[in-house]
Amino acid sequence: SIINQNMININNILFKKFFHTIIILFLSVNIPAQTFSGGFNFNLPWNDSTSQNFLPKFPIIKIEDGKFVTTDANGNFTLNGKPIRFWGSNVVAGGAFPQKNLAASIAGRMRKFGINLIRFHHIDNDWGGPSLLTGVDTRSLNPTYLDLLDNFIARLKENGIFINMNLNVSRMFKPFDGVAYADSVRNYGTDFFKAVTIFDPYLIQLQKEYAQQLLTHINPYTGKALVDDPVMAMVETNNENSLYRAWRDNILKPIKSGGKLVFHHVKMLDSLWNAFLLKKYQTNENLKASWNKNILISGLNEQIKNGGFEFSNLRKDWALEQHSGATADTSRDNSTSYKGNFSVKINVTKGTGTEWHIQFKQPTLTLKKDSSYTVTFAAKSDGQRQINVSVMNDLSPWNGYGGKNYVISNQWNVYSFSFKASETNNGTARLTFQLGKEKATFWFDEISVTKASVKGLLDDENLNNKNVRRIEYADCVSYSDERVKDISEFYIKLQQNFFKDFFAFLKNTLKVKVPIVGTNWNVGVADLASMNVGDYVDNHSYWDHPQFPNIPWSSTDWLINNKPMVKDASGGTIPALFAGVQMQGKPFTISEYNHAFPNQYQSEAVNFILGYSSFHNANGIMIFDYNGSTNWSDDKIESYFSIHRNPIFMAQFPLASFIYRNFLIPESISPKTINYNFETIKLLPKNDTNDWSGTVLFNRKVALINSVKVGSYESNTDFGLSELQNAPSTIFITDNGAITWDTNLGVLSIKGK
User: Fold this and answer.
1) How far is CA 476 from CA 370, 496, 510, 524, in A?
2) What is the Cα–Cα distance from 1 to 247, expressed in whole angstroms?
3) Rounded CA gap, 700 and 493, in Å?
4) Which residues on neighbouring strands pair with residue 346, listed in sequence order?
5) Strand 413-420 to strand 516-517: parallel, antiparallel, or no bridges (unpaired)?
6) CA 705, CA 168: separation in Å to the nearest integer?
7) Of 155, 166, 48, which is closest to residue 112 (Cα–Cα)?
8) What's the predicted TM-score (pTM) here?
9) What is the bridge-based pairing of β-strands 343-350 and 232-238?
10) Which of 138, 295, 404, 697 is least enclosed by beta carbons within 10 angstroms?
11) Is beta strand 516-517 parallel, antiparallel or unpaired with respect to 232-238?
């Protein structure tokens, strides 16, 4: 590995009062890539566990039998009655199964660099490489890889390194598992869509079976099962798996309708939904009385000009945006229409794999805050094509109000969705059709934006017939408050009950003695509310995660923005990672974090996550990932995320770990607490702003100044949200003065105790 000073782009690093005060300055300068001479080899060997006088020392701290990691009322992990923090990483797929002659050296090197926790991830994969599940079914553990896993865990334990054991990550069910429609269900794993494992009873049974096999078998190298071995510090039941997120993404519907469910699971969810309503309302009359309050008729105040394209002023009323090499042209077409004589024809002559690179839009809409609107249009294409339709501000910061993905066919069909405007927008809101994914031809007609209707129980629905529909998330603004609250509660409680049941099984049946978490990658407060039954809270975040236009996880077909986070006035990863995610009285971990290679500014990552995790008193950091392959010795960066041969990360690990594990950066002195009324949470779909991280009820940039934790998701009233609306725009100073971040200059300063 060679350090190129221009590539790393660190302007100034200054340490004062070694280990006690750290000031880290990053100055972002736009230096173009260039060839250079005079570079030098900077090789941090994969197996070096020796000590150096100029590095912090991490002696082996024995993991004692009977002394398990637990939690305290202050929201800390504890060991022997004292708070403990974990500085760690992930071993992924093949990286979790090193050969026996390598494992001790790998573990020793991890300890040398300050790692005291390793998360075992994707050990249940079906990618054709090392995995615990490699047979004709997924109901038995591969003995060869189980033996390698056991040996590696024993070597980690010898070095005083704890483990975070993941259960359901990338398992792909097979016909010999006895799973109905297994060939289609396997695609759930491929797409990292696992929501069915939250409500399908048989899949839940299989998950429990796997947990029992993995956690209760005796490791021959330690003489203990993981449930009885204090080397296991925590258990994660489901990686990045949210039923609520799947609902918000509008994919809990049949595959042929643009969803991800096989018919078997559609009917299962429908049945559970109607059973939920029957238990709550008992009769159809009660349901109708509740849902049909304050219903309204739609169709008023048309916002679209020339939505039927009968007038010749196409380019006056409609605009076409083309980005990143994507090309298209528009014209009025009198050869086909849904209604009248004309439609608009959009011929995408070059796609890029990214929908927004071609945008057909009308940017003159006037919207009123908290008013609901319905978008309706007719469309067809030259084949089955996926598009996105959205409404947003046409001016910076381009706030989104609502949108939906559609699969368009070669036949005319009418599509619609509704949204609630989050702000008043006088003539600068836009309706946008995003079409740049691939070369294709589209026709649109009868485009309309009007005041939305409010519907209750529909005429053809009857609880006695068990045919009440599950409405899509994007359509919630078109339905009465009571109907929306019920469908929200259904998904939240269904997910919460799964976690309650699974946690009880782990603790009461398998006798797991350490903290357990449900999942991560939340989609806002409603998702978090369903997960708060766990012992701790977990989250993930990445800066400049690679995008894959055409081939998922390709090593050649990828894009990055290659920008520094230190210059990002929105706060980069920090607001969504911390603000209102932590819960009072429960530990908080970040089990995946990275600024992905080859972003030139990777050197930011360790210091950002060190500083703000310390400030927010996060209890565990796991950089993703240490290694995800069986290649340990080659001196190269193996993947976008692999850090074990990446000197930009590893050179910073010893000092960062020492500071973090020894609490040398002070935490917030003015923490904020927020409480949510569950009624507010259930109505969030009617106020969604289309943000990636879910509905935002306060200014999350406050997390750059104060710690913000949730006290309750079932409060009698919403509390603390109104005082969290204001935050500085470009310069952020934490309440204790420990961190100053100037996004204008691109300077991050961290001061220790």
Assistant:
1) 14, 21, 41, 17
2) 45
3) 26
4) 330, 442
5) unpaired
6) 36
7) 48
8) 0.83
9) unpaired
10) 295
11) parallel
